[in-house]
What we know:
By secondary structure, this protein is of the alpha+beta class. Helix content is 33%, strand content 20%. It has 14 helices and 30 strands. The two termini are 39 Å apart.
Amino acid sequence: MKNLDYGVIGNCKTAALVSAKGSIDWLCLPSFDAPAVFSKILDKKAGGSFAIEAGEGYTVTQKYLKGTNILCTLFVSEEGSFELLDFMPRYRTMETGYYMPAEVYRYIRPLGGSPRFRIKYDPKMNYAQESPIHRKFPDFIKTSSCNNRKDNMYLYSSFDFDTILEGKEMVLEREEFLLLSYHQKLIRIDSERVHLEYQRTKIYWLNWNNRSRKFKQYSPLISRSLLILKLMSYQESGAVIAALTTSIPETIGEVRNWDYRFCWIRDASMSIETLIKMGHQSAAQRFMGFIKRILRSKSDSFQIMYGIDGSKILKEEILPHLAGFENSQPVRIGNAAYSQRQNDSLGYLMDVIYNYYIHFPGTLDEIEEMWAIVKNIVKSVYADWRTKDQSIWEFRNVERHFVFSKVMSWVALDRAIKIAEFLGKNDYAAKWQVEAAVIKDDIFTNGWNEKLQSFTQAYDNEDMDSSLLLMEQYDFIRATDEKYITTVKRIKQELFHKGLMYRYKNNDDFGLPSSSFTICTFWLVRALFVIGEKDEALQIFNQLLTYSNHLGLFSEDLDFETKEQLGNFPQAYSHLALISTAELFTEEIVTSKFIKP
């Protein structure tokens, strides 16, 4: 199995990683950012997993049910075959809006013969720091932490409980199930109920997927990426997380291991903008609700990232007892980057707010509340754009006048001006236009290097940076501008290596980067396309798509040599870029206006 040959299941409350062999190797309960109860992905020996183990004679393949986040793992041998359907329930209800409990169903269906396998139920509570205690009851196995009996979960199954706990081999003769739930169930769990939950969840995802825009080419890839982005949105607050995991290293054996189970304003804003374009406005409405809740008063300051519940303190800790992914330590939980200054973040947020006004401005009180946030963001931009920051790449010990941070400060004001004009507040628009012009002039004066014929990473260096490829996408400069064209070519010359892009090649806090940041290659494809190099752009794009895992999923990074996936997984950043890049090379399929999706 390759590094990240995992499928993902989830229900906008939490999620699990299921290996290509059908083992749940990562699950946090009851939410995305809660302590893991299975963390084999971070320690093969001690991490704990929930596996279906068939014999060596079985061929195992995996796919998603089309248009859903239900994962099907197929086991085939001469003695028999069966399929394992993994999902987390999610569907609409009349009473509460959505039913999305913190639980996992494993629905096992025989397809022929007499297949045999073992169940390995091996939870390790609190990131494998606490051993489990199992107690059998008539309807379930209750698993509790040896350190804290209140930390528990419930396993329901049609299999014999002793057979499960002892890992005995069994023969599959009929449909069976396993249900791992964070809470005790108040209804009877039997095969009929499992089948009902399966069908309801399947219909929910099919309906959601059907509302997405459809395209003539790349439609399955776009659809899968959208389903992943949706899965990574936290229903209870509207936050969107950057990735489902922590501490999957950017390079095997190195220390660039971070916890990405939080809501970065940058990543979330880009994800929401993508979902809006693809026909899912409700996600944007929930995200705007999240923004309003974290900025309850006009005196609240902005952070670059928040917990999925809006929490502001994301203390970083190291878990030394875990060996790490492929023995790459340290394993971290929390993320100290929450306190960094990254002046680009507000540009993305303002861009989403602008789209919010254009698509669905809401009631008068909502418009007024959002207008107050717009003015607050502008004040922050005025106060900060001239200062050094730690950039889009979150340098921990470096502060500079990063060019792209200045560009996004301009974007924040440009979108604020458009919002002001939309609301008829022309006096604000006129005032902000003056400052936006100052920022743009400052960038052209200090960020352009005449000798290199390119914009550079920072005012005080001559390094290239992939983020500069986005200058055109955010309307700072036209694709036909010679300065943008030569910048794109210079960046490609310096950072494009073996079909993939570096973020940058200068030293950072940990030395020279040694892996490719996946989204940067998507950015290069778009930049080449808009400057007229469309054939080369398409060639690079199609090659990049072959580096996804067996289910079409992308992580944060790729190894330049092996093209193995690295970094936290799946990565919202990578999938939103895939969608917007694929859109360049295809046409939308327009459905009849008489048919509601």
